[in-house]
Design a protein that fits this description.
This protein is mostly helical. The chain is built from two helices and no strands. Helix 1 runs antiparallel to helix 2.
Length: about 100
């Protein structure tokens, strides 16, 4: 493979990493905002040191968070596959 092809491949890889990092930052930002909202609710709805009724159990919150993380990862996987489609369609041309 020539240096030009290697450069193109490296550029595409870096673009994918940048896109995934952007998605991850967006997810973390959303989680941070959610956490602030929950903290404000708990602080305003409960006496000091007590958890208000109706607040989800920690196990449930953890399960929900990891389901969310699975969705983010699945989205990143689909994005990576979509990046390969144009390359795959073009790489098969002229081959027998």
């Amino acid at each position: 493979m020539s240096d030009t092809h290697n450069d193109v491949i490296e550029t595409l890889r870096q673009q994918q990493v940048d896109a995934i990092e952007g998605q991850s930052k967006a997810a973390m930002s959303a989680l941070a905002e959610w956490q602030k909202g929950v903290a404000a609710f708990v602080a305003s709805a409960a006496p000091a040191g007590k958890t208000p009724e109706g607040l989800p159990e920690p196990q449930s919150m953890l399960t929900d968070y990891f389901r969310f993380a699975e969705q983010v990862l699945a989205s990143q996987y689909e994005f990576a596959l979509a990046l390969l489609k144009p390359q795959s369609a073009g790489s098969g041309a002229g081959r027998s």
